[in-house]
Amino acid sequence: MQTRPASAHPEHGTVADAMDAAGPQVWEDMTVEVALSVMAAACTGHLVVCDEDGQCTGLVTRARLTAVRDNSRYTDRIRLRDIADVIGPFVSPLATRAEAERAMRRRRLGALPVVDDHGNALGVLALTR
C-alpha cells in the first residue's frame, strides 16, 4: 500500500501552504482613485491595506472600490479608511485551509489577508472554487 503525500489532501494543509504573496500593500489614507490606479498598475484584483504603523488592517478588492466610486455619494476625498468593510477579518498562517475556506464562504469573501501574531501581512488566501 502506498501513502499519498500531504499535498494530495489540500483540505488538511495549513493556510501557509496555500497562501499567495501579499502583493501590493497600501496605506489607509490612500484615496479610492489612487488605490484603483495602484491595482491596475500591479495587475491585481486586491490590495492589502495597512495603518500608519505598517500593520495590516484589511483587504480591499477592485469590485469594492469600483462600487464605492460608482455610488452617487462618491467624492474624490474618500479614503480607504472611510470604507467600513476594509477592516479585517484576518487568518493565521497556522489555521487549516479547510477552516479558513469555510469561514470565507460563510462571509462571502473571495480573499483574506494572512497575518502573523504582530499584524504583519504575510500573504493572501484566495478562495478556491
UniProtKB/TrEMBL annotation:
Database matches in InterPro entries: CBS_dom, CBS_dom_sf, Diverse_CBS-Domain
Signal peptide: none
UniProt keyword list: CBS domain
Keyword NADP appears in the UniProt entry: no
Top-level taxon in the UniProt lineage: Bacteria
Pfam family, one: CBS
Domain CBS stretches: 19-75
The UniProt record lists the keyword Nucleotidyltransferase: no
PROSITE patterns xrefs: CBS
Protein name: CBS domain-containing protein
Taxonomic path: Bacteria, Bacillati, Actinomycetota, Actinomycetes, Kitasatosporales
